[in-house]
Write a structure and sequence with these properties.
alpha/beta, 37% helix, eight-stranded mixed β-sheet, 268 residues, Rossmann fold, globular
Length: 268
């Protein structure tokens, strides 16, 4: 099992799956994306835990939960996180999801709208097919089957940063991606490919922030634009000179935008 340490972040191990948790206040749940893991949120946990009880689950099949069987649908991932939060006594919370995690948080909001207080959709969209992705999902699937998980995970991670393999967060993303099994990698692709959240956008009533890096090669502009236009009570923030993993490339700007959007103690 791959274990990556996150400085000053408490590791929690309930019966069902691993997660990271730090801080106090209203709960804020961070859901990572495809081939990711909780350590990718280290900067956000450090900053946002000053005002919030920050919880960063790791999806089954990923990170420290790599030995667990992964879900095969976005709905399955959504219900998995909702169940985990119920297990640890968290009923209402703010919610932030990245990439595939952004699809998951949209589905969580559809499945349990009364539990979500506000929503942040980051580097994501309402379509799992991702028409502007650097390569099609089927091409990634063929790479996993022909080249293996480790090689393909490195190739995919290089597309998440403007600086590619030279980016500061690239090696961490590679380690997390290399830690998943072939079945988890393929299940994730199928889960995204078969998911479509467009019809549910109009039902999202929570205050929502749509966040997007202007050089994102996974989700083209039409994806965040569809969220912004489709969710009535939504705001849009575009991070300049940032790729798909803008929270790792531009953490200070990213964290400031998220802090400004979320309520703080004493501020409605």
């Amino acid at each position: 099992m791959l274990v990556i340490e996150a400085t000053n972040i408490a590791e929690q191990k309930p019966a069902s799956q691993h997660y990271l948790r730090q801080g106090s206040g209203e709960p804020l749940v961070l859901v990572h994306g495809y081939l990711g893991g909780a350590p990718m949120w280290e900067s956000q946990i450090s900053v946002l835990s000053k005002h919030f009880d920050v919880i960063a689950p790791e999806l089954k099949g990923y990170g420290s939960n790599a030995k667990l069987d992964s879900a095969i649908s976005v709905d399955g991932f959504a219900n998995e996180i909702l169940q985990l939060l119920s297990e640890i006594g968290v009923e209402q919370f703010h919610l932030l999801g990245h990439s595939m995690g952004g699809m998951i948080v949209q589905q969580m909001t559809a499945n349990a709208p009364d539990r979500i207080k506000s929503l942040i959709c980051f580097g994501t969209g309402p379509r799992g097919v991702m028409p502007d992705r650097f390569e099609t999902i089927d091409e990634s699937r063929k790479r996993f089957l022909s080249q293996g998980v480790a090689t393909t995970a490195k190739q995919i991670a290089s597309k998440w940063f403007i600086a590619g393999e030279q980016a500061d967060g690239y090696e961490l993303c590679c380690k997390l991606g290399e830690g998943v099994s072939e079945s988890t990698a393929l299940n994730g692709l199928s889960a995204m490919e078969t998911w479509d959240g467009r019809e549910a956008l109009a039902s999202i009533k929570q205050p929502t922030l749509v966040l997007w890096g202007d050089s994102d090669r996974s989700y083209g502009w039409q994806q965040p634009a569809a969220l912004w236009n489709g969710i009535k009570n939504s705001n849009l923030a575009v991070l300049p000179n940032a790729g798909h993993n803008a929270h790792m490339e531009q953490p200070k700007i990213f964290n400031a935008i998220v802090e400004n959007f979320l309520p703080k103690p004493g501020r409605n």
